[in-house]
Amino acid sequence: MSVTPPIPETVVCPHATMIRPVVPRTPQGCEECLRIGSPWVHLRLCLTCGHVGCCDSSPNRHARRHAHAVGHPIVQSFEPGEDWRWCYVDAALV
Hints:
This protein is α+β, with helices and mostly antiparallel strands. Helices cover 16% and strands 17% of the residues.
């Protein structure tokens, strides 16, 4: 018998009011990693300003750093075929 971990529920997030129509600033990859020549694992798109940053599994975790540094809490996966959104403040799917 296998046990599957629970799937996080999508919540109504008070930060959703910060979501704007955005254009990815660096669609080719993580803005900071491209500048410093660092690798990344997955990409996240800031839904307030269009910053593209690397995920928490990447060495530099630029998406999370951006969210906390500038107060833009909600990102969307910037991976092909994925459309989920995450709020760093509430640690929840949006």
